[in-house]
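User: Can you predict the 3D structure for this chain?
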Amino acid sequence: MIDYTLPLDRLPDPLPIEPLTKPFDVTITPPGSKSITCRAYILAALAEGESQIIRPLRADDTDTLLNALCTLGAEARWDGEDVFIKGVGGRFPRGGKINLGDGGAPTRFMIAAACLAAEPVVVDASPRMRQRPIAEGVEMLRQLGAKIEYIEQEGRLPVRTVPSATLVGGPVKIGATKSSQFVSAVMLIAPWLKQSVQLVFADEPTSERYVRLTSAVLREWDVRIQQWFFAESNGHSATSSRPPELRLIPSKLAGRDYPVEPDASSAAYWMIAAGLVAKARVELIGMRWPSPQPDVSIVGPLREAGVDSEAMSSGFVITGPDNLHSTQTDARRMPDGSLALAALMAMATGRSVITGLHTLRVKETDRIAALTNELQKIGCEIEDDDDMITIDPHHRHDKPVVIETYNDHRMAMAFAVLGLARPGISIKNPACVSKSYPTFWKDFAKLYQ
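Assistant: Here is the predicted structure, written as structure tokens:
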């Protein structure tokens, strides 16, 4: 039996996944939400006074973001699972060079936050992040009066932010974007600008649920938002010809105690694990319903596939079905959860279709291509385009395969849980889970107890 509790740097590489021989019944507390932790760190670092962020995520992305904020002048100290952050009152006193590694949201958030520094800031990241788009976010910030320079290549990292007296707020026109993180970055610095920030959308925002998440977090920090927005259905309100918009009012944010709820994206893998094993049961402590986190939406397609779920006062309970049905799912509201769902559908009884994947091409890797390559290795027939993947598992086989993770944490976790039901899977570079879930393999070991 493989010891999945070993430190990440001591795990075998590739890491064999032992198929389960019986159902599991476990309780797991997912780590803090990565999305909420990143947003809370930005707000706490810019607020006046000290904030206690309760049980945030400790992972590569969030730790790197916190270090970058401290480089510019915020202060942080850990006490057990909580971090105390002393904010700068709306303006970072220092500049410098910061590198956000592989973090997409941390990098895009920090470009915006660096515009509030009293000295120039150079923002850089990993080679992969240098390939990922940032120009749309830079253009939004420039509309507010920010001065941002491309250092090497137009539209790509690294960039230099320069203090600007013209960064005061105002209207921002937003067309189609490759990532909602650009919009969220602008929203997170809006409270400290002199004028209201008015975001006017020409169309439905990319990954709209993440924009709603940012709005929810800002309100929890007492930011005033005047909101004309999309209904839950697509498109403009049927009763108004007014373009959808968000107006964020300048606000004085004080430090506060802020609990971070468990991560829905991480919880999705345990939901999938239970769904793959008949009569398996997992209780996910601390998950709430409803939640502003987009990946909670994975509960819907799970139910369609026959997986039982129940919201309780303590969290979610997921129970595996005797028969796993195929589904047709629009994953726009749960883009990160789509990888976990694809792994589940590789074991379903029929052909499944997952749409709404247009943001996956520009993630940590080209996730549509990655899913296609690795699902084909196990015998699934795959069709894909820029927004969709079709999974036909009828010719799936059990031959040994090594799954390439492309240094993508979500590929590693999705195919790890698939290996519980499909024999012969080994995971290359299993340590890449450190990006968002450093204790993933230790929790994975609980399934065998």
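Residues 34-46 form the longest helix (13 residues). The first strand starts at residue 15 and ends at 16.
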